[in-house]
Amino acid sequence: MWNWLRLVKDSVSEKTTGLMRMEFWKKTVDDIYCDSPPQQPVALELWKAVKRHNLTKRWLMKIIDEREKNLDDKAYRNIQELENYAENTQSSLLYLTLEILGVKDLHADHAASHIGKAQGIVTCLRATPYHGSRRRVFLPMDICMLHGVSQEDFLRKNQDKNVRDVIYDIASQAHLHLKHARSFQKSVPVRAFPAFLQTVALEDYLKKIQQVDFDIFHPSLQQKNTLLPLSLYIQSWRKSY
């Protein structure tokens, strides 16, 4: 379901079609919680998961509602708007993951909130070259304006210092959320840690972008880190995130 929702925006040419697909998922979730899921493979698996783990409907609906609002091809007005989007999508997904793991803990919820926001910010950064190739820019406008950078600068792949300053500010916010999430580490139940292993990939990207002096278009940022699986294993073995 998550991949389907994520791909709706890029797979439809008209907003109306996207809205129809979102309405389908809203009704599907409603039907699932009425114990009458549609006979559709993804919906049936989601219904089984809801029954097995007693998943909270609110988190599912937040993901759909936020994806629906995001069908508009508009840049985020400010970093808070990007963080709100990340909270309602990425963090909501983490709250559901914690429920599947049987974790009910306030500190784990706080960590999930910050990790979800970091994930949303990093995803926005990583997707900038792809969006630029489609003549779109979604980076927060307030930070761009602060440094005197226009959307056209990103479309032209401008690498001036003020463009890199925009990326630095946004990446720093993601790093701050990771730092906040890890400040709860001693209080978070160990069984919650598997939900948070994505911090390994997030930190890897943030380190790489720092190494290229925040050049968002540097080719190395699009290359896979072949050592990432090993890093994930080590982090899991250490029981940390």
From TrEMBL:
Involved in the assembly of mitochondrial NADH:ubiquinone oxidoreductase complex (complex I) at early stages. May play a role in the biogenesis of complex I subunit MT-ND1. GO terms for cellular component: mitochondrial inner membrane. Keywords: Membrane, Mitochondrion, Mitochondrion inner membrane, Transit peptide. This is NADH dehydrogenase (ubiquinone) complex I, assembly factor 6. Its main location: mitochondrion. InterPro entries: Isoprenoid_synthase_dom_sf (IPR008949), Squ/phyt_synthse (IPR002060). Belongs to the NDUFAF6 family. It comes from Callorhinus ursinus.
